[in-house]
Design goal:
By secondary structure, the chain is an alpha+beta fold. It has one domain: Glycoprotein, Type 4 Pilin (2-Layer Sandwich), CATH 3.30.700.10. The chain has 2 helices and 5 strands. Strands 3-4-5 form a 3-stranded antiparallel beta sheet, covered by helices on one side. A two-stranded antiparallel sheet has the order 1-2. The protein is 45% helix and 16% strand.
Length: 129
């Protein structure tokens, strides 16, 4: 009876420490990978948002023969000089992926008839076109 109880013992302290060390190594590998994936997803969202804004600005420009003064103009109905109404060109202006990207996408027109939409965050600047 005594030998049976001796063989029914649990894990030793060394075995438990080895398991905890293995879990620690796995966590130290997984956490940076997870952070990298979330940063890449925020960058991808910014790129997709900017592409949709570029499309809406291009449609506005085709209808009005001029670029909008601000991105907010894309959410309203616009009447061109010929009296034809169109729009809204977007339901709402998308917000950047996180607060580190700033409060809104930057929009600027140039004197040579082009425009630029940009956002910066996570160590990356996304611009188009």
């Amino acid at each position: 009876m005594r030998s049976m109880r001796w063989n029914a013992r649990g894990f030793t302290l060394i075995e438990l420490m080895i398991v905890v060390a293995i879990i620690g190594v796995l966590v130290s590998i997984a956490v940076p990978l997870y952070a990298n994936v979330t940063a890449r997803s925020r960058i991808a969202k910014a790129q997709a948002d900017i592409r949709s804004l570029v499309t809406a600005v291009s449609m506005y420009q085709s209808h009005m023969s001029t670029y909008p003064i601000a991105l907010g103009n894309l959410t309203a109905v616009a009447t061109n000089p010929a009296g034809i109404t169109a729009g809204p060109f977007m339901g709402s202006i998308p917000t950047p992926p996180s607060t580190s990207w700033g409060p809104a996408y930057a929009y600027a027109t140039n004197a040579n008839g082009t425009f630029l939409i940009s956002a910066a965050g996570d160590g990356v600047t996304v611009t188009a076109p």
